[in-house]
Here is the input.
Amino acid sequence: MQKKEKSNYKFLILIFVVFIIFIVPVFFLQSFTIPNNTKTEDPDSTNFPQGYRIVIPNVPKKIKIFGENVPLYNFEVYERVEREFIVNTYWHSVTILTLKRANRWFPVIEPILKKNNIPDDFKYLCVTESTLLNVTSPKNAVGFWQFKKDAAKQHGLEINKEVDERYNVEKSTEAACNYFNEAYNKFHNWTLVAASYNMGITGISDQLKRQKTHNYYNIVLGEETSRYVPRIIAAKIMMQNPKKYGFDIKPEQLHKPFKTTDVVVKGKVKDWADFAKSYGINYKILKLYNPWLRESYLTNKRKKTYHIKIPVKGSIEIIKG
Here is the structure.
């Protein structure tokens, strides 16, 4: 009998130990576990991305581009425009850099557009073409306005081994204005003029005739030209209201306009590096201000007059050596 009691006693002790070791901790942990339906103070504090909201940017209810109304009441047009707002809003690096460059280059482009009676909104076409950079496309279109060689020559730009005026912002803007006015004489509609800059005057004319319409927004087009004008629209609205779309850039962070003076060159230049040194700068600075100079010399066999831009003395710090 005593042995049985001892056995029962040992069994009870074993049960107690198991309870202490395994059961009690479970109750203890459950008491500190937040139920799924319990709201915390900051439900997003541990979720990616902390505090960052990914939203669809607002598209204004009414938009004008080139002085013409955009038919946003049409769902297909609205969706095309909205797409470009989304792309520009979340393509952060490109949009930020374009906003910074605009402070330098819009003051150069705007008066040339005005002089040629071109709507100011065409500066955003330039943004769409190149993000205000002297780039070369895979199809060999060059400069801010992305001229191909034949079209550039047709509109008065000089291109040879030593000089390529597609890289000259002022002269290429003049050439673009020449094109815009030519296209406007054909279409009498600035939106079609803009679309033709991407597709060509003949290309747009053929599609208008084929599809029996006179409205850009009614034409069935390839994706590139279909997106072209909406890209310009998005660039305009967002660059005019950058903070509204999350781009908080301080004025001092923008690229400063170049302060320059012109040096007239009518003859040949044996070495542009020596030329630069004679004006207290170096070859790199000379090329930065005059990217249209494509060789280290200028033979100038036709004795043309060139205006070489030199930074105003004291406007920049020159690295010695």
